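#struct-help
A.M.: can someone run this one for me? Single chain, 30 residues.
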Amino acid sequence: MKRFVKVMTVLMVSLALAGCSSGKPKIRNN
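D.P.: on it. Structure tokens below:
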């Protein structure tokens, strides 16, 4: 159960980072 939650969290974070970096580059100017 904990492993599943951890995997889901990692996937959510990775998707969020990928979406922010590739989809919305105007928000972050790094």
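A.M.: thanks! Residues 2-23 form the longest helix (22 residues).
D.P.: also worth noting: The mean pLDDT is 77.
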